[in-house]
């Protein structure tokens, strides 16, 4: 003789809705935490970049400061400088000059290693 047990679970509509909301919340968190490529995270349209730059310059003008974008040939990247309007002095640079020098030295060293291997 074979006996089978069957369980019937009855959930009230309120509990079903709560479980559905919990599942959706978990899925949203998992989606937000899912790894995405760095390029996707840093993409800005030219229009967005202009708007951000305009807002930043407006804010900095309250302190008599302005931003300037400079292309550093040695590092091969754009450097942001915050300049005091009165003295025309660079108050802050991103990335700092020291970091650009270190990056250049590393680049030169890697170049030497590759030359010796070739």
Give a structural overview.
The protein is an alpha+beta fold and about 120 residues long. The chain has a domain at about 45-118. The protein is about 55% helix and about 20% strand. It has a 3-stranded antiparallel beta sheet with strand order 1-2-3, with helices on one face. The longest helix is centred in the first third of the chain and has 21 residues, at about 15-35. The radius of gyration is 28 Å and the shape is flat.
Which descriptor suits the 3D outline? flat
Number-wise, the strands total: 3
Order of helices and strands: HHHEEEH
Specify the structural class.
Answer: alpha+beta
Number of helices: 4
Are there runs of 5+ residues with pLDDT below 50, and where? Answer: none
Distance between the termini: 80 Å
Describe the sheet with the most strands. 3 strands, antiparallel
State the assembly state of the protein chains: single chain
Rg on CA atoms, Å: 28 Å
DSSP helix fraction: 40-55%
Tell me the strand order in the biggest sheet: 1-2-3
């Amino acid at each position: 003789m074979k006996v089978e047990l069957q369980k019937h679970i009855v959930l009230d509509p309120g509990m079903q809705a709560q479980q559905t909301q919990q599942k959706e919340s978990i899925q949203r968190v998992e989606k937000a935490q899912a790894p995405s490529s760095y390029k996707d995270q840093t993409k800005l349209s030219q229009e967005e970049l202009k708007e951000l730059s305009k807002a930043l310059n407006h804010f900095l003008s309250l302190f008599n400061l302005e931003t300037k974008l400079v292309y550093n040939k040695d590092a091969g990247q754009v450097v942001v400088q915050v300049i005091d309007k009165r003295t025309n002095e660079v108050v802050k640079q991103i990335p700092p000059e020291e970091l650009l020098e270190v990056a250049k030295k590393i680049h030169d060293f890697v170049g030497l290693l590759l030359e010796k291997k070739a």
